[in-house]
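anyone seen this seq b4? input:
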Amino acid sequence: MQKKVINRIFNFLLTEKRKESVERITLSIAIISYLAHLLVIFLNTQGIIEIEQKFFKNPIAAIYTPFSFILIYEVFLLVYFLPKSITVYIGKQYEIITLIVIRRIFKDIAYVELDSNWFQNKNDLQFTLDVFTSLILFLLIFLFYRSIKKRNYVSIGKSDKRGKNIKKFVLLKRFLAITLIPLLFMLAFYTFTKWGILTFQDYTNGILEFSKINNVFFDEFFAVLIVVDVLLLLASFFYSDKFHKIIRNSGFVISTILLKISFLSVGLVSNILVISSVLFGYLILLIHNLYEKEAVEKNKQITE
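predicted toks r here
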């Protein structure tokens, strides 16, 4: 009975059709938000409203706003892929943090000062760090996904018992996914409602706070992801006693914790933590695949 209810809710919330609907809605909101930010910049430059922050004077910085909504769609994709593959689910976490860094670059551009003291200027230095960080993350994510594809040839014959265990594990992941969906919307609603009330009370401070709004959202959401990752780790003990599987899942938890800590840090420390998180996850997966490959080779020797 519980299995039927979970599958029914899952098939309603997280189908391919639902994903396409969320994508269209998100893109529409992103476009509207981009135009709204440009309008604020226009009104500010014309003196109709007064906001001192350069974030609301440079049109390039307006790209930051639609990226905020695209990131929320990426969070939906993360939940969407959770029941399908843990590694792809982790990969989506890395994509989110990379998009956050890229979004920050558009914000950094507004504060860049072209002078000879480039590396002495705090804003210029942060812009440089974010540019190089995004490049490194882009490469690491490519390597991470390539390792997932290479793993496809690694397969050992499944016993009936193992097959049943996998089905139970998938059911657990579906349950976690459908639990995350309302939680995601509640967090988003709370964050934007809080911002809306602040804007209504004092529109200047409200507009300024918008540039920080997703930091609050993602800080809280990654805290939730740590709980989910730990639950997946503990559940994996029931469905697999293989050392390399347990270490892989444990490594993914550590990787998520590093991402969470990065939200509490600023400057160079934050960038180092983000890169370290993705690099650690990639190396964990790489070593895990070596174990899998070794197991396949041993299995072949036994059957020959």
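Residues 153-160 have pLDDT under 50 and may be disordered. The chain has one domain: 2-303. kinda curious what u guys think
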